[in-house]
Structures are given as structure tokens and as C-alpha cells.
Amino acid sequence: SGNNFEIIIIDDGSPDGTQEIAEQLEKIYGSDKILLRPRPRKLGLGTAYIHGMKHATGNFIVIMDADLSHHPKFIPEFIRKQKEGNFDIVSGTRYKGNGGVYGWDLKRKLISRGANFITQVLLRPGASDLTGSFRLYRKEVLQKLMEKCVSKGYVFQMEMIVRARQLGYTIGEVPITFVDRVYGESKLGGNEIVSFLKGLLTLFATT
Q: pTM (2 decimals)?
């Protein structure tokens, strides 16, 4: 790609063999390119971001899921978009241009669309996809946002964008196709939906 990069893998003791595969990749590509930074148990997405940032040496950080729901082929487009507009954040969007979702049932699609619609109406964040996590950040912007964000779970990604707008950071968007994981199940259930609504109302009251 011509870009200098490192891949930091944060594995929270997952039982699916992620760490073993990462160790094999480290041997093939070298520990300067593949940095495996495991943690003994699941400690949450926000703390995983902080953990990863501590080890990142570049000026920009791309955050993505490691199960190929987020395809690496979009990363060059994120980089192009950032350079084009000198954006602080470039966010992958499933809801603009030729973006889309594959592998979700109707219920999951309705929940995601509904969450985005309600958030657009209440918060007017200026971005079309608030619950996705495939994004490029300037490192110092990500650090600042992590200091400001208090949400957990489903609301966390949304708060990152809302706080970014509040702090005057610029956001570009790249259409992506999201492919749901083949194995495992989504953790999105009734409790997560209630937490989302509570978090949304908190953000509405504080932004």
C-alpha cells in the first residue's frame, strides 16, 4: 500500500483461538508489524481502545473488528478520504452511497436503522452511521475523545461522534459494506436496547 503501518491486536481472553492465530501472524510478518497485546479477560471496548493507543506509534489509528465484518479493503479509502479533506475522523457508513449490511435478519436491521434514526432526530450529529465502529482517527483526537466519553456498550460509538462534533472536530465518511460474522452470536438483546435508550437520553441532556 505504500503506507507505513502496524497492526495491534487486543484479545480479551476470547475462547475462539484468536490469540494463537495472532501469534502465528506475528511469526510470519514480524513483531514490528503485528503487535499482540492480550488481556486476561473481557474488560470492555473503551478500555481496549485505551490499551491499544498506549502501544500505537503512528499519527493515525484505524479501529476495526477482527472478525472480517470490517473488510481491510476499505482502509485505503479511509486514508484517501482523510488526506482529501484533512479530516480528524473518517467514519465507515453503512447508510450512505453504496454502503450496506449483509447477513443480518430484519429485526437486527430495524434495530440498527431505528437507533440511527432516533439519534439523528435528537442529536443531529452530522454523520449518517453512529453505531458502527470502523473508523480512522487522528491519534490525539482519539485520546481527547476517550477522556470525554463515559458511555459503555452500544452507545459508546455514538458518543464518540457526538462528542467529536461538540469539540469541533471534522468528520468524513466512506461507504462500507458490513458482513455479519459467520460464527458466534450478536450480543444485542433487550438489556442492550434499554441501555442504548438510557444512554441516548443522557447524551441528549448533556450535549
A: 0.85
C-alpha cell at 25: 501472524
Numbered ranges of CATH 3.90.550.10 in the chain? 60-206
At 4-50, the pLDDT tens digits run 899 999 888 777 788 888 899 999 999 889 999 888 777 777 778 88
Grid cell for residue 59: 499519527
Between strands 60-63 and 34-36, the pairing is unpaired
The CATH label, of 3.30.565.10, 3.30.200.100, 3.90.550.10, 3.40.920.10, for the domain at 60-206 is 3.90.550.10
Report pLDDT for 92: 96
